[in-house]
Automatic annotation (TrEMBL):
It is a multi-pass membrane protein. The chain crosses the membrane at residues 6-32, 67-86. Coiled coil: none annotated. It holds the Pfam family Cornichon. It comes from Notothenia coriiceps (black rockcod). SMART domains: Cornichon. It is found in: Membrane. One of its GO terms (cellular component) is membrane. Belongs to the cornichon family. Keywords: Membrane, Transmembrane, Transmembrane helix. This is Protein cornichon homolog 4. One of its GO terms (biological process) is vesicle-mediated transport.
Length: 88
């Protein structure tokens, strides 16, 4: 979560607007999830709470969406790096 927010702020400071706007919703979602953790839980993904309440399906769906997002970001960053190397 810290890394995601830090990279989002770095993109804002370096004026990479497209990448900043791509990272902003995920950073906001991570902060929202962290703030909404009930008192006494170990964290956002408390294993006992997931299995006790039957939330496994929704957590798996969220994990797959984040995996797709990070794969998309990886290829965008890879394309940007290759483009920067070619232009130099």
């Amino acid at each position: 979560m810290v890394g995601q927010c830090l990279s989002t702020m770095l993109m804002l400071v370096s004026m990479h607007w497209f990448v900043f706007l791509l990272n902003l919703p995920v950073a906001v979602w991570n902060i929202y999830r962290y703030v909404k953790v009930p008192m006494g839980n170990m964290g956002v993904f408390d294993p006992t709470e997931i299995h006790n309440r039957g939330q496994l399906k929704s957590h798996m769906k969220e994990a797959m969406i984040k995996l797709g997002y990070h794969l998309l970001c990886f290829f965008i960053y890879l394309y940007s790096m290759i483009l920067a190397l070619i232009n130099d």
